[in-house]
Amino acid sequence: MTNREIGRRARRLVAVLAAAALALGAGSAGAQTDGGSAGADPGTPKFTRAEPLGPTIAARPGAPTARDLAGCVAEALAANDQLAAERLRRAELDGQMKQALSTGLPTLDLVGDWTRGRDPSFALNPNFGGGGDGGLGTVPGADPWFDQWLAGFGSFIPAPGDIAPQSYWRANANLNWTINPVQILGAVGAARLGIDQQALQVEALEQDTADRTLAAYYSIVKAAARIRAVEAELANQSELVEIMKMRYELGMATRLDTLQAAVTRANILPRLSIAQATLRNEGSRLNALMGRRPEEPLTIANAFDVETTPIVDGTALQLAQQRPDLAADGLFIDILHKDRQATIADNRPYVTIFGSYGYIGTEVDNVFDEGHDSWTVSAALNVPIFDGLNTSGRVAESNARIRRAEVQLTGRRREVQVEVLEILANLRMARQVLAAVRLNRDRSEEVLEENLLMLQLGKANYLDVLVSESNRAEAHSNVIDATYEVLVLTSNLKRAVGYSPLLPLSAIPNLTGEGSR
Predict the structure, then answer these.
(1) In angstroms, rounded to a whole number, what is the distance separating the alpha carbons of residues 172 and 129?
(2) Nearest-5° angle of CA 108, CA 111, CA 115?
(3) Residues 25, 44: Cα–Cα separation, whole Å
């Protein structure tokens, strides 16, 4: 038993003994009088505390089972729409990786073509003996006998008008291969870093989703506690209205007193409706975060821990610099460097290889006949000399993008430091407020109990009791708000330092300790 409880019981015992003595004195005095008492006080209000929440909370009635905190987060991570969309982006990156690999692989095409044409240039070319009107032309400077001898072969060179059009059918397999090692390494490296960056972005979004899920979960608990508090306040005020009516009938209160009590009770009813609507809305929000229809029934377990372990500020700031979203931004800069490398490679020497193998024929039926095969192989070393400043401009653009990304990352790191410091300050303040309002709630309970005893002794009036009850209700409301703030800020801190909000603070390396301020 604490000293506070001992003092409370002692004060209550003294008040009870005083009440008993006063009652005995009043009985003796009444025995000596003829008229007796004019009337008794109709009673002392028995103000009740808000009922504690049960093991489950029905945010939207109708759910057969209750979901605990870990279950809600797991369902949100599995079915949240934003997370699903982010994970689907991985398929895009896998496609980009294949494209990057394709820069170092050959291409193979099967080509079938048909051509038909007429070309009399052979018969017109004197270098081949063509004379332009058929037969072989004369050879300048040759002896006459030689020209006569060539004339005997004139039938080999027809006249241009006698050359008929020709048709050819071809079937080929063509291979093309461009080998640029620097470009290949840059493209593949950028694609691989893109996949790593995507994994970090998904991890960061998972932590953010878990943080928002915890906030919605705690909001349901807060709304349910608020309903219980307002219901208790309404019950107490209803009791007071009945007492005021009885006092008015006995002539111990005015009509204004009764009216004021009724108005106070009427003002509580809208607050109860608002609290109930808030509970339903928070249930809808949690449903949406978990990928469910907002109107579906939802019941959660009333189980959570308020962590009050001290936190090392320096460790929190260091951990925050390694959180997934900042790591993803750092990888983006590495990706830009790889892109720059691939861009520079466009203006570096590279090798091209071409090969073709196939068949040719004048008819479809004889394309694949023996002896109709044809093939070609070639290799070339290409040394770019001048591309019209295209590569130079693209490299300058890449350099500017890298510098801009580095500056943005530096600014982002500062913003994260400010975010963590604000969360730490707010969390420390929220913990202090929670401790203060809990103490104030306990003291307001003591004040109300003492005023109720004093009312029985005639040493206090109803106004004192009403003020005490109002203070107790406000103190209880402050405890609800302060508890919610500590829970949410603790979750925010875990997400801000790059860890899952489900982890206890003690599980985060070197974050907790007595050395924190």
Answers:
(1) 34
(2) 155
(3) 20
